[in-house]
Amino acid sequence: MSKADNTDYDAIVVGSGPNGLAAAITLQQKGLSVLLVEAKAEIGGGMRSAELTLPGFVHDICSAIHPMAASSPFFSQLPLAAHGLEYIYPPVSAAHPFDDGTAAVLRGSVSETAALLGKDEEAYRQLMEPLVSNWPSIASDVLGPLHFPKHPLLMAAFGLKALPSAIWLARRWQTKAAKGLWGGMAAHSISPLTNIATSAVGLVLMIAGHLKGWPLPRGGTMSIANALAAYFTSLGGVIQTNFEVRSFRQLPSSRAVLLDVTPRQLLQMGGHSWSTLYKSQLERYRYGMGVFKVDWALDGPIPFTAEGCRTAGTVHIGNTLEEIAAVEQQTWEGRHPEKPFVLLAQQSIFDPSRAPEGKHTAWAYCHVPNGSRNDMTALIEGQVERFAPGFRERILARHVMDTAQLESYNANYIGGDISGGAIDIRQLFTRPALRWSPYRTSEKGIYICSAASPPGGGVHGMCGYHAARRALKDIFRLF
User: Are the CB atoms for 101 and 160 separated by under 8 Å?
Assistant: First the structure.
């Protein structure tokens, strides 16, 4: 990576996750001199890959499947393919197995998916077809701060579906297949499915699946970070790794600083800089459930009973909607369910570069109470075995990360919270604080650009993009 010197910069971005990289690129595209600093030896934040288990087995350390990266209004306009990024699209974006050996699947088109839902075929079409059709017109508004939208009627139509709880929206379906598929999607909110706005997360993921699919990057998630970094430096941007920022005084002189950090780090970095009101809001910021993650080196593909699961990049393991809702509520309340909801990816089926010939990798996590140190390995493997008898026999090696290890790996994962803070109606548009612009801090020229700002978690870069545009308007008068 490029190295910084004592040069003054127009802007400095702290943290090289998807939002830090997006912010740095947005500023550099305007001809500014931008320094991007990263505490770790490698850039990427949650977008890194490594041989965690055995030699030759490449695992995604954090994020793995990327529907939001592929459909991001910002990333989509960048020439990332020219910098080595190639997406692989599994024939089934996501599968949801049931105890009877069947599975519901999310396929490329609304009609393909609906046709497999029996009595709910028409109900699925009626819900999803208008949303998929309207998404290109409203994506930037949905994936941004609260403001008056470009297409208010289309946004209102989306809001009527997205703001209710996932449990409420599920009432439109009758079949186990449709309800279960929906429950797995909505559980990505990492919140009780009775919470207001949990439907938003599920709908956005399903829309992304129907428009662009749920791809994985060839070679590992690090390929996304590498392509973004290569594009940034091709524009003249500078990257410095092994640069941990504990105080703004460590940074070279600049006109603007953008921080890809969450409120806890922001409080530590700013010291006494923040206003009393802003500081108090940061102190009240709420983090959500954590995750416990397992990576496996396998002697063969996972032997799922349901055929749809064998060709899916992502598998949601939780059985019925009712079962998923119950275990997510228990976890939210601080308990550890015996049959947790498990999100699983099987990248090596589609990307042979991930494992030696004839071998495979798999990636999975479940939700746990924030800060939990419980070892969930056996429970996660039990859930996989439940729908893939013989799975345990194929395990050659495993690597696990609990909430503390995840936070040590990425300081933004407070208590294992991979979303940068609880995602609910109270923190959907006002994260991390209630301000005219959520990206501004109380100190002029300092901005927050992490998943703790709108639109929240996910590898889409939109938090960084919007924060950078705010800085461009406020400081550089370029809009």
Answer: no
